[in-house]
Design a protein that fits this description.
Strands 1-2 form a two-stranded antiparallel ribbon. The chain has a two-stranded antiparallel sheet with strand order 3-4. The protein is about 35% helix and about 15% strand. It is built from 1 helix and 4 strands. It has about 70 residues and is α+β, with helices and mostly antiparallel strands. The longest helix has 26 residues. It binds zinc ion. The site of zinc ion (ZN) has 7 residues, from strand 4.
Length: about 70
């Protein structure tokens, strides 16, 4: 029996206990909670970027129907 090496969370820098839920993502390990938080933060950042872009383009420039490609 070989003991598992300690795993550290890349988000909160705490050790992830063997009984904790562990999520591996892009070569790093996270607590499941920390990973969910990370994902949410990334999504929020993307949303903020999209919202900024969308607000500057919204309304007046509706896509012309001709641009639609029927399949
Ligand atoms: Zn963590």
């Amino acid at each position: 029996m070989s003991p598992k090496p300690p795993v550290w969370c890349a988000k909160c820098n705490l050790r992830i206990a063997p009984y904790d839920l562990l999520t591996a993502y892009q070569g790093a390990n996270y607590h499941q909670d920390c990973f969910l938080r990370l994902v949410r933060e990334e999504a929020d950042e993307k949303k903020r970027g999209q919202a900024f872009r969308a607000s500057s383009e919204s309304g007046e420039h509706a896509k012309p129907a001709a641009a639609r490609v029927g399949k």
